[in-house]
Amino acid sequence: MKITFAHMGNLYITVKALLEDLGAEVVVPPMPSKRTLSIGSRHSPEFACLPLKVNIGNYIEAMELGADTIAMAGGVGPCRFGLYGEVQREILKALGYEFEMIIIEPPQGRLRHVLRQLGRLVGRNPVGKYVRAARLAWAKMTAVDELEKVVQRVRPFEGRRGAATAALASALKLVDEASSIVQVKRALEDGREMLLSVRAPEGDAPDPPRIGIVGEVYVVLEPFVNFDVERRLGEMGVLVERSIYIGDWVREHLFKDLFRLRKGRRPYDLAKPYLCHFVGGHGVETVGHTVEYARQKFDGVIQLAPFTCMPEIVAQDVLPAVSRDLGIPVMTLVFDEHSSDAGVLTRLEAFVDLVERSCRRRAAKGARG
Amino acid sequence: MAQKAYLGVDVGSVSTNLVLLNEQGEVLEKLYLRTRGEPIAVIQEGMRMLASAASGMEIAGVGTTGSGRRLAAVILGADCVKNEITAHAVASARVVPDVRTVIEIGGQDSKIIILRDGAVLDFAMNTVCAAGTGSFLDQQAARLGVPIERFGELALMSTTPVRIAGRCAVFAESDMIHKQQMGHRIEDIVAGLCEALVRNYLNNVGKGKDIRPPVVFQGGVAANAGMRAAFEKALGTPVAVPEHYNVMGAIGAALLAAEEMERRGAPSHFRGFQALDMDYSATSFECKGCPNLCEVVNIKMGHEVIARWGSRCGRWDSF
Ligand code: SF4
Ligand code: SF4
After folding, report:
1. Which of B220, B241, B262 is the last residue of a domain?
2. Chain B CA closest to residue A34
3. Which of A12, A222, A265, B217 is the most exposed place for a label (fewest CB within 10 A)?
4. Consecutive H or E run containing A333
């Protein structure tokens, strides 16, 4: 049995560690590319959301490499995410692929349920082995998130264009190859060193603009579909933060009910004046995080959304009010399989200009007043 | 000492515009050319046309904008390369200093820019939908047998514009044909089409934007008095069309170049008019480094590669 799964940013490092440590044979799909997207779009319903299309492409490319089992996380709520598993199964079946699909649902409570589902994937294992695998995977996930945060902080100051991105790739490779928690820790330290060393010798440019990224989780986390917004902005000299990291997503999906952890209510409270009910997906979080970035005196917020994504459309409708009330510029970028590099770049450049010109204005005012 | 001039170049997929500004930011010379899918040749042609007007002047700064801004920048040796939004906003704020809304409809796309106190506050751009662009209006004028120059004038003669569904270019077109067959007067159809396009623009590009007067309307389509009237009717406020409405992007690029030169205090990178007779070419190859198969473009001057772009991962950016 060769297991595969869909890509979402660097999530593959975590999933691969977990499954391999449990003794499974894993086929990581090729990183999403134009080929992935075109295969996925060709075989998906026109109106399906972008993430579904890229997922289909991932699965097909992985099956071309010999994968025969697909693992995926389910979803909850009125959002279409909950149907992904079934729709994808049907699409792939209709294309004549032979495979097994295992949908790991956020269970209504029991750890035993998740273990049973995992057990179907990897065969029976003693509980201790699960614990060890989970701890290693968790350590890797935390390390990846940490490295992604470090790269955001150094990229605007890199001495040579692309150096931070290259350092991140090497650092991630170290994490990916680590086979024990100690090694993961060392990889994280080495990776951090490599990243910090790319800064220009002249020192950091003073007071760069800060932009927060919010929106639908998949397009926020997957650089292929968002045309590398983070890298683009960083290379324009912007300090970028995003509202969600892989760890947040995993915690939310797998452990919310499981360990009966209450999710941090903050984004919900902050969004309340604008949006007071659950709209599926991450619509409420998008609004709440925008409010939060405004309060933290960010210079701007960019919302990323897949075309036709209902939760984000609802959020997009209320964002102009947030922007006006709190005086923070907000731009929405919508992605589909027809999005173009040039269009995205022009908008990003214009938004950075807007933000910089208003920064400069504020600085000038501050100096005068 | 030679008089200083700033050159602004806006290269779009439909038109390529060039302007020369004096130090006061006044337009000395302007050109509006068709790009015809050959941006390099058109830039060279335009520069040749400008050369005589610019004789005796010192080109003190060069700015480029538009979808071909990088290409124009390497060919000319630009000092400042800016996106279209910023360029249009800067030009507009120069003409109408207290402008709060800029409506720009060009041949290939449309934008809205919201300004406050001379700075851009918000913007949106439509690059996918054909309805509402200059090219669409041209097509419909041709279909109705009305020369595009008379289109606006005709629209103004209408007393009862016909309501045309303007949600999408395809619907608008078929609905228009339908109204024509029903025997509506041509001026009412033309006026109805303008209103439909304005509605479409306001619902798509202008959606959620805080549109306040003064409003400036620019881009090629601003020549159309019918469109201007339809905007005034829909917004309930006068809409100003600047004198150089169709080259505002180029003007903005030149103004930004002037600003940049002042900040930099070093000489311009302009290659000079003679350099334009060099043999420039754009060639492309497919990178096989990964399944993205990027189309990487090489810009050559003679045999030397002077610029390269198109790779998603940035691997070909430096050379
Ligand atoms: S959140 Fe948006 S993109 Fe994701 S499944 Fe729901 S509708 Fe689709
Ligand atoms: S340029 Fe980079 S992203 Fe594009 S095909 Fe080559 S390796 Fe892949």
Report:
1. B241
2. B292
3. A265
4. strand A330-335
Residue holding tokens 């130090």? Answer: B23
Tell me the one-letter amino acid at A95.
Answer: L
Q: What span, in angstroms and rounded, lies between the C-alpha atoms of A348 and A345?
A: 5
Nearest residue in chain A measured CA to CA from B120: A354
Span B255-274, mean pLDDT?
87
Q: Which of B132, B258, B55, B318 is closest to A163 using CA atoms?
A: B318
Report the predicted TM-score, pTM, of the whole model to 2 decimal places.
0.87
pLDDT of residue A62: 95
The CATH number of A2-125 is which of 3.30.565, 1.10.238, 3.40.50, 1.20.1280?
A: 3.40.50
- Residue of minimum CA distance from atom 5 in ligand 2: B293
Q: Identity (one letter) of the amino acid at B214?
A: P
For residue A242, list its beta bridge partners. A213
What is the number of CB-based contacts under 8 A between chain A and chain B?
79
Residue nearest to atom 7 of ligand 2 (CA): B289
Which candidate in B128, B209, B260 is best for mutational testing of the A interface (most A CBs within 10 A)?
A: B128
A208 Cα: distance to centroid of ligand 2 (angstroms)? 30
Q: What is the pLDDT, as a whole number, of residue B251?
A: 96
Whether B305 maps to a domain, the answer reads yes
Q: For residue range A157-198, what is the model confidence (pLDDT) as tens digits? A: 998 888 999 999 999 999 999 999 999 999 999 999 999 999
Question: Domain locations in chain A?
Answer: 2-125, 207-369
Tell me if B314 is assigned to some domain.
no
Domain around B59: 3-89+249-276
Domain A2-125 and domain A207-369 have a common topology: yes
| Token pair in block for residue A28 | 């990581």
pLDDT (tens digit, 9 = 90+) per residue, A28-79? 999 999 899 999 999 988 888 888 899 999 999 999 999 999 988 765 444 6
Architecture of domain A207-369: 3-Layer(aba) Sandwich (3.40)
Render pLDDT for A87-137 as a digit per residue (tens, 0 to 9): 888 899 999 998 888 877 655 545 666 667 777 777 777 778 888 888 999
pLDDT at residue A131, as a whole number: 83
| Residue A80 beta carbon below 6 angstroms from any ligand 1 atom | yes
Burial B203-236 (b: 16+ CB within 10 A, else e): ebbbeebeeeebbbbbbbbbbbbbbbbbbeebbe
CA of B8 to the centre of ligand 2 (A): 33
Residues B71-91 have pLDDT tens digits of 899 889 899 999 999 999 999
Q: Mark residue A297 as left, alpha or beta (left: phi above 0; alpha: psi -120 to 50; beta: remaining).
A: left
B122–A30 C-beta distance less than 8 A? no
